[in-house]
Amino acid sequence: MQRFKAASLVRNGLHSCRLLSHCRGLCSLPDHALNDDLDHQVLVEGKAWSRTAILNRPSALNALTTAMGARLQKLYKSWEDNPDIGFIVMKGSGKAFCAGGDVSCKFALQCAGKIEECKQFFSTLYAFMYMVGTCLKPHVAILNGITMGGGAGVSIPGTFRIATDKTVFATPETLIGFHPDAGASFYLSHLPGHLGEFVALTGERLNGLDMIASGLATHYLHSSRLPLIEEELGKIVTDDPSVIEASLDKYGELVYPDEKSVLHRIELVDKCFSHDTVEEIIDALECEAGRTNDAWCTSTLKRLKEVSPLSLKVALRSIREGRFQTLDQCLVREYRMSLQSITKQVSNEFCEGVRARVVEKDFAPKWDPPSVEKVSNDMVDQYFSPLSEFEPDLELPTELREAFT
After folding, report:
1. Which of 34, 128, 174, 295 could form an S-S bond across to 311 if both were Cys, CB 3.0 to 4.6 Å?
2. Whole-model pTM?
């Protein structure tokens, strides 16, 4: 594979009814309605020896819903069982690969008190992400455009990931009071040095060059050459990953991060983001900013002070735990964390974050607690605990499908 290894490599007063109405307007199609038009939301292309799943909600940046996840599971299962299909391709329609899970719909369900439907959303999509990560046939994801959150979750665990000049990657969950999920604690924790902590906490974006350098992508090519690679993939008659890799290598480009890339600051990232606590990370950045007057340190500090303090601490612990867990273990733990978030047993951060950035768009979330110093260890611990002794964990077919380590 062509890879360049980087060096060292709603708060309680949210007016729920009004927001629910607004949020429904944002959601291009409610999840229950998607069942009536499901074939259109996930298109299928058949080639000589492969099948392509096309995420097709371009007006919503191909955001994932429960119904889409269920359809993808069904399709992938049938393709795995078909001896005439050698490999699977996934891509998106329009200017995005996939912007993640449909936050607006999830928020609407939460506001309406439909917690069981929220649980189904997470369990269905996480199960499909595990299926991608343990796919019995080679998997090629074409990440042309926005690839965030759940979009990364349905692609990065797969065999091959093609980034382009239009790829924009991020895990921006701390900006909306959530946590980097969809397997993020697994793949981010395996990035060079402490780049994963930086990406998880700040939600900063990486481009296609950064993805190749960090190992998030396996191949890179200019978007104008995508028709060539898709045509080539359509002609391949094999289930051999090495043959597919050779075809991707033939069109892939050897590239390096541009001068503005965070990967050129990997030593500084490691120096600041290797600390045990969020407070220590912020102190380290402030020290570097004061000592060097480095604009990157200043902008990173600004970013950390915009996101949810509680989410910062939860995200940091999640990445650190993910470093020693398999993909399935990370997904099971993230499922617990997601349920804690949507049931608001610990806080209302997710509702407040979505209100401020997606619904009302005043970009002035009122985080509670308002600072990292006021986030208690008990609050963070609660995120990693089951909702109750009667709440089942996410069940994954680990006995039938071996997980990543």
Report:
1. 174
2. 0.88
